[in-house]
Amino acid sequence: MKYFLVIFDGMADEPLAELDGKTPMQVAKKPNMDKLASLGRIGAVATTPVGMAPGSDVTNMGILGYDPLKYYTGRGAIEAASLGIPMETTDAIFRANLVSTDGRLMLDSSAGHITTEEAHELIALIDQKLSTNVIKFYPGVSYRHIMVWRGGSDNVHFKAPYKIHGKPIADYMPEGDGDQKLISLIHDSYEILDNHPINRRRKDEGHLPANMIWFWGESHLPAIPSFLKEYGVNGAVVAAVDLIKGLGQMVGLRVFDVPGATGYVDTNYLGKGQYALNALDDYDFVWVHVEAPDEAGHESDIDKKINAIQECDRKVLGTILDGIQKSGQNVRILLMPDHPTPIATGSHSSDKVPFILFDSTKHEHNNLPYDERSVPETKLQVEFAPDLMKMLLSGD
Length: 396
Prior knowledge:
single chain; 15 strands; globular
């Protein structure tokens, strides 16, 4: 038996007046998901533990089979792991976004989805100007980067930048251990970046500038067992974003990098499906993650979200299902969003999400639709997200 975990990040939503009271999942053409649902079981799961924020770090850790209340120590360390950044248990690790601001308001948490090439030049300059013998900046993908404070403290509170769009940045500066140093770095980054040639060109071309560093995702290195040790199955992960790659790396999954995978709506959907399918040659468990629906949700762009869901269905899931059918392999598939990212708020929600459990060796006869309407209707209600992995691997 082979196993797939397929996560279309932030796909779930809320009814929208612009869609006549329907959600993007209801409107999107997703014949492959619908077919899988008709032959499988639909359930609803709470992916965010009570008292925790509904971030993709927390929700994906739980879905992967690890209790976030036990293992989660923050987002930064997970993403740093994907970049191969050396870390000690005494280090504080922070996510460092390149963001857009006018000096007063948070305009965009992704700096207009700046290219990785542009971002690397800016982060290299930030590292040159602001690094010390204990503070170091590391480049990631697009707007997502890392800062490590050797011997620092992660006992400091930040506000994720995507939660404060249009709001005064002065009202959301870090608070806690070392906050004055962090605030100084934020202000200094604006002075360094705002008039940089890359940002002057971006403004001239009508793009948002990447003119400030914003810290969040405070963390330290967690102690987490390998997936093989925990579940007795070898595995791989196909993803674009550092968060998912890092979580996979932390638990010993083989990380595949797909050319053209961007972590945005322009990602290489087809390549992700192909890489995930090919990974079955060497691994029994494959986790494929697509960020695009989540990014569209953060932008509150209905058309982008519908299109991202359709591309996920056709090019990612469709490729996987076609390959499985041709190979004749027996598979179990768990397919789901990790959390809702409602268009109305542009942020994550801790509401339950619908999931599909499919087993090619024992087809079910399900009549529930695969979208948010199934959440209150299904009898398969899961309150503890790590139980999903046990259900997938055991077939229960």
